[in-house]
Amino acid sequence: MMTSYDPLELLTTAEMSAADRLTIASGAPGSYLMAQAGAAVALEAEHMLGRALGRRTGRIAIFCGPGNNGGDGFAAAERLLARGCQVEVGLLGPLEKLTGDAALAAKAWRGPVSPIEALSLDGVELAIDALFGAGLARGLDGLARETVLRLNDWSAATGRPVLAVDVPSGLDGSSGQVQGVAVKAKTTVTFFRRKPGHLLLPGRVLCGETILAQIGISDEVLALIAPRAMANKPGLWSRVFPVPRVDGHKYTRGHALILSGGLARTGAARLAARGALRAGAGLVTVATPAEALAVHAGALTAIMTLVCDDPNDLSKILEDRRKNAVVAGPGLGGAAHAKALVRALLQSGGAMSPPRGIVLDADVLTSFSGDAFGLAQEIRASGANVVLTPHEGEFARLFGDIDPHREGSWGDLQPQVDAPDALLLALSSASKLERVRAASALTGAVVLLKGPDTVVAAPDGRASIADDLPPWLATAGSGDVLAGMIGGLLAQGTPAFEAASAGVWLHGAAARHFGPGLIAEDIPESLPAVFRTLYESFFAQQV
Ligand SMILES: NC(=O)C1=CN([C@@H]2O[C@H](COP(=O)(O)OP(=O)(O)OC[C@H]3O[C@@H](n4cnc5c(N)ncnc54)[C@H](OP(=O)(O)O)[C@@H]3O)[C@@H](O)[C@H]2O)[C@@H](O)CC1
Ligand SMILES: [K+]
């Protein structure tokens, strides 16, 4: 059965194996799951042929590997043959080496099996890639590599599609990274739940459209597996989302403070401020150097201003604990100034309850380049709810160049993090998901790493991955608006992980609503329409 809704959970390949094992242990044979998987692939193959040719009689070539992914290929082949399709099967490796359910599926296949290199693509309308799935163990080489390249060349030259089983072969389902080479699919059919690699780049592009099929694995196994990675959709954060209440007023919706840089760089703070206000903060104030006050005052209406020339001014401003969220970084200026301000900011919360929400972005992140340990110590000592919002460059400068062996680099941090060695290794992992999780575990902050596949991770290992951000979101000032929106959500009391995840989703939804040609100023102005649709969906779920 194909799924018509988007479940949130994303399963690593290890978690998916656990789901298979638990299901098989509860009495459903593996061969049944494989038959269901094959049937789902066959159904999609028929749809694809139907769409391309208006009939389902075109030739289909199925490339099977030596494990259960190949078994799914045999099961699909048999199903397609039974439905009257023209199917040919090639196998990587000897038939007699297949074991378990894959051997059973191959035995049930009534047609011939060619060596994979002999399976011709001449006149083929659709190729099915069932070489490797969750069991990919190393980079592809030799005949496996040649086969993948042959499939890609054929598809590029003819425009005919490849349908991938579970994941395009060569793609690591947990990380979204390519192991050597990978198939470029038009469509991927995966089972039970999507894997992080279906969302993370380059995986998402290699998968084409990902279709989720249910093959008889019960949702109940999720309670035992307890997956920690989720697709970033409203269902992830809707329960804590600050929907305005009839009995609320602006003072119950928090007060966000945005730190501005000097005269030549005030626009970023105003973009962030507008983002915070549109995201629903009750009050928003821009704290600005005196030299830029007139510029801000002339450009702002609903947003207030305060003079803040140095860390002392900031500490005084923050004695007002009603200013419960702060955004620092956009356009803030030179490293020494930014660092001094952020120190004052992190030391200002005292024993606030609930702790102040703080978004650190742009120039603040750059001011701590190579000093992730220093930043981590200050964040942990602050007790604040901190969200870091780097792009790839800022992330690399912050976490990519640290020397854990330098004396004193860990300071008093080491006892506060689990498995420090593994954490350091993960910081340079090829997997974006693992890198962001490690950065979050090190700093004790929620970390949001931007990109077309923005990942948000919390120190406890929860993570969200975005899969619906439009390319026109990558425009000057867009990140400033995002930082402000997250600040606005924090001001309303949204917990940091959910505020960051919801901020990413709303930012993308606003950009989708506006469409191509978007500039940063359009994002806050598109939020009301997004909220209207979002609240309607919340209310629809309540009735
Ligand atoms: N379990 C179930 O009930 C269900 C499972 N399902 C399906 O099973 C799939 C997972 O199956 P799987 O675990 O057998 O792994 P799979 O991806 O076929 O590859 C393993 C084989 O490839 C080989 N190999 C690995 N890397 C290689 C390389 N670079 N180059 C060359 N060879 C390489 C590896 O060899 P080895 O490493 O042992 O030398 C081994 O022979 C999953 O994606 C889904 O499609 C569904 O039917 C639902 C029910
Ligand atoms: K595959």
Q: Would you kindly provide a written description of the structure presented here, covering whatever features stand out?
A:
The protein has helices at residues 13-25, 30-53, 68-82, 100-108, 142-158, 196-199, 203-207, 221-225, 234-237, 267-278, 293-299, 311-317, 335-346, 362-367, 372-382, 392-399, 420-427, 432-443, 478-491, 496-514, 522-542, and strands at 9-10, 59-64, 86-91, 113-115, 124-130, 162-165, 187-191, 209-213, 229-231, 255-259, 283-288, 304-307, 325-328, 357-360, 385-388, 446-449, 455-457, 463-465. α2 crosses α3 (68-82) and α10 (267-278) crosses α19. The strands form two sheets. Strands 1-9-18-17-16-15-14-13-10-11-12 form an eleven-stranded mixed sheet, sandwiched between helices. Strands 4-3-2-5-6-7-8 form a seven-stranded parallel sheet, with helices on both faces. The chain has two domains: 9-227, YjeF N-terminal domain (Rossmann fold, 3-Layer(aba) Sandwich); 249-542, Ribokinase (UDP-N-acetylmuramoyl-L-alanine:D-glutamate ligase, 3-Layer(aba) Sandwich). It has 543 residues and is an alpha/beta fold. α5 links the parallel β5 and β6 (162-165). Potassium ion (K) binds next to β5 and β6. Ligand NPW is lined by residues 20, 30, 33-34, 37, 65-70, 72, 132-138, 140, 144, 165-166, 191, 215.
